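Q: How do we represent a protein-ligand complex in a form that can be generated token by token?
A: Start from the inputs.
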Amino acid sequence: MEIIILDTPEEVGLLAADVMARYVEQGATLGLATGSTPVGAYRELVRRHKEEGLSFANCRAFLLDEYIGLGPDHPQSYHATIRRELTDHIDIEDALVQSPNGLDPRHAHDYDRAITAAGGIDVQLLGVGTDGHIGFNEPGSSLASGTRVKTLHPRTIQDNARFFDSIDDVPHHVVTQGLATIGRARHLLLLATGIVKAEAVEALCEGPVSALCPASVLQYHPHATVIVDQQAASQLENAEYYRYAFQCKPEWQEI
Ligand code: F6R
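Then emit the structure tokens for the protein with fructose -6-phosphate bound:
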């Protein structure tokens, strides 16, 4: 796992966009996250599309998760969110931007088959929850799980209430890619910014691999990159080494 510590959330977004753009140029299958963390990276990708001609025409995309009970037209569904924040502003074909079906969760497993049929995900962008979740694999999730229904942890409901008019409007259930589904992506790119993520970042990078911190499965992945800002890195014991290793990184070695 490569851990990259940058000064600001803006720098995290720019570096993430650099990595994603490399895949976009190859016509890759992209794994997309929603939430606040990737917004800076998406903004930069949209800018590169509009100002520098970065084309997504040969790409397709799979979302990580979806709320149960919110249809694609609901503004807080992840289907609508990713269109508003990214895919409506680039030249990716809308039918090739897929998300789990929050209105018919009984067929959640079909999502894994769709990803496999598309040749798998080349790069999966991830945020992390304050409780260590990735996708919506809450603490206690099976490390071998596929796409399925999960109940949100009360802490996640509280964290996500900011996107809704009231905490009572936050759905309690979701369909999420499982930890094994996420682990099959060829490159995992996890971003975290802000002091609220410091504890989760320490647990996922330096703690034991444990269902209690689902994001710690990244430690088993052959190509996982974690990009964090100073605040999110503030509890990392080995931070000095990560900074040193990134400074010494040979130019020919890609992230
Ligand atoms: C969203 C997702 C979640 C978020 C996480 C962090 O698709 O899968 O795991 O990445 O909850 O959310 P933010 O970025 O809003 O702090």
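The chain is about 30% helix and 15% strand. The helical segments are 9-25, 39-52, 78-85, 110-117, 154-160, 179-183, 198-206, 239-247.
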